[in-house]
């Protein structure tokens, strides 16, 4: 079974994806790390984030074992990743890697921004996780403070809104719910409540899959 989880920054999709993957015993890929790692490689080699040729080369050279996840979780890397992710050729270069991961025997869980719409359009279960701008900014600020970064809430909120606009308006794979995705609004949900709501969605999809027809 393939589970596709999409949503904007700080919606809670990453935390939810990790918990669901553990619960169902599925390999998990945070596809956002692919774009962060691509951006990191560009910057490390002195390239501009808008250098398409260098960005594509960096994306094609990635391996799923290359990631220093802690080093890729900063606010600056989130912004850089959003710039790189808007390059259509970069997205194209990373499609096969993501689909190979999704094609593992026994299934997989992937989270990102175009899993249900582009990477795994036939996924058995699709969830689009969202929350208000303010709730997401609060979560991201707390996350960054927890890593010891100095944080200005207003700046974080502005970054999130800028990223939403960039992600939803890009020509290649814009951020949007798949037509058959279930939208899960986590604005007023804590981690446990969001997990329980997602479990209901996934279990419904599993039951429908066993019965031989789509859930949604």
Automatic annotation (TrEMBL):
GO terms for molecular function: ATP binding; CMP kinase activity; dCMP kinase activity. It holds the Pfam family Cytidylate_kin. Keywords: ATP-binding, Cytoplasm, Kinase, Nucleotide-binding, Transferase. This is Cytidylate kinase. Its EC number is 2.7.4.25. GO terms for biological process: pyrimidine nucleotide metabolic process. Residues 3-196 form the Cytidylate kinase domain. The gene is cmk. It catalyses: dCMP + ATP = dCDP + ADP; CMP + ATP = CDP + ADP. The lineage of its organism: Bacteria, Pseudomonadati, Pseudomonadota, Alphaproteobacteria, Hyphomicrobiales. ATP binds at residues 7-15. Its main location: cytoplasm. It is found in: Cytoplasm. It comes from Methylocella silvestris.
């Amino acid at each position: 079974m393939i589970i596709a989880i999409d949503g904007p920054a700080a919606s809670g999709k990453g935390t939810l994806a990790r918990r669901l993957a553990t619960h169902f015993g599925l390999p998990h890929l945070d596809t956002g790390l692919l774009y962060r790692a691509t951006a990191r490689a560009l910057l490390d080699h002195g390239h501009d984030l808008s250098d398409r040729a260098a960005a594509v080369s960096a994306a094609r050279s990635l391996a799923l074992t290359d990631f220093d996840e802690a080093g890729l979780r900063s606010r600056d890397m989130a912004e850089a990743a959003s710039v790189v992710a808007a390059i259509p050729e970069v997205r194209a270069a990373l499609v096969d890697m993501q689909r190979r991961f999704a094609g593992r025997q026994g299934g997989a869980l992937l989270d990102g921004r175009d899993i249900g719409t582009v990477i795994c359009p036939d996924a058995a279960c699709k969830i689009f996780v969202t929350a208000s701008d303010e709730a997401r900014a609060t979560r991201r600020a707390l996350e960054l403070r927890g890593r010891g970064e100095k944080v200005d809430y207003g700046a974080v909120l502005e970054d999130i809104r800028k990223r939403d606009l960039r992600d939803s308006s890009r020509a290649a794979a814009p951020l949007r719910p798949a037509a058959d995705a279930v939208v899960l609004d986590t604005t007023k949900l804590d981690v446990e409540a969001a997990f329980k709501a997602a479990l209901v969605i996934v279990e419904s999809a599993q039951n429908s899959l066993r019965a031989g027809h789509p859930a949604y």
